[in-house]
Amino acid sequence: MTQLPDGISGFAGALADAAGAEIVPRFRTAIDIESKADESPVTIADREAEAAMRRLINERYPGHGIIGEEYGSENAEAEFVWVLDPVDGTRAFIAGKPIFGTLIALLQGGRPVLGVIDQPVLRERWIGIAGEQTTLNGAPVTTRDCPVLSDALLNSTSPDMFDAEALSRFQALSAECGSTQYGGDCYGYALLAGGHIDLVVETDLKPYDFCALIPVVEGAGGRMCDWRGEALSLDSAGDVIAAGDPGLADAAADILSADY
Hints:
The protein is of the alpha+beta class. It folds into 2 domains: 8-140, Fructose-1,6-Bisphosphatase, Chain A, domain 1 (2-Layer Sandwich); 149-256, D-Maltodextrin-Binding Protein, domain 2, CATH 3.40.190. It contains 8 helices and 15 strands. The strands form 3 sheets. Strands 4-3-5-6-7-8-9-10 form an 8-stranded mixed sheet, sandwiched between helices. A 5-stranded mixed sheet has the order 12-11-13-15-14, with helices on both faces. Strand 1 (34-35) and strand 2 form a beta hairpin. It is globular. The mean pLDDT is 95.
C-alpha cells in the first residue's frame, strides 16, 4: 500500500472544501468570462478556487510542488506534487450545469497516488487512493462488469474536442459500442467509477485534466490508459481511455490506435 503523509486524505478534502467555497456562491450568477490564450474560458471562480487551494498547500506542506491549470507550476521536481484543476468543465459551470468538478491529484515520484473528483453543488465527492477502494461520500463504489464493446455505454465530453483523424477513430469505436453519449467533463469519469458508464474516451487532455481521475477510476476497479493502451504520465499526449471493465481498455485501444 502507498505510504502517504498522515491525514493526507482529510487534507485533500479540505482543499476541495476551500475550492467549493469559492465556486458555489458564484454558480448561476452573472460573472465575467475571459478567454485564455488557447481560447478556453476562465472565470473568477476558477482563479480564486485554485488560489485558495495553493494557499493551503503552501501553509501545510511547503516542500510539496504544485501544478495548476490557472497559475502554473512551482517546485514541480518535489517528491510530492499536487495537480489542480479548480473547475474542470468551465463551460458547464458557465451554462449552469452541475456536471463540472474540482480535480485534485497528489503525485508521488510522478505517479498519481491520490485523486479527488468533487462536485460542490451536488455535494458529491469521489476519493481514490492507490491500493484502496474508491469512495463516494465515504461509501465504496465499483465499476460494473462489461466484457464486450457491444454492451458498452461510451461517453465523451464533446465531439468538438477531436480533430478530423481522431474523430474518425472515435466514430469507429462508437460504431462498435452499444450507445454513445456526450457531456460531463470529469463527471463522466466519476459516473464510470460508480458503475453507470463503461467507457470514456477523450483527447488533448492536460495532466491537470486526468491525473486526479486515475486513482478514482482504478480504485473502483477500472483502468485508465492512452489510446495505445499505455500508462498515462505527465508526458502523455492527452489521448485518454477510461474503462470500467479493464478489458474494454485494450479493445478500445485496438480500434483507436489502428491504422486506417
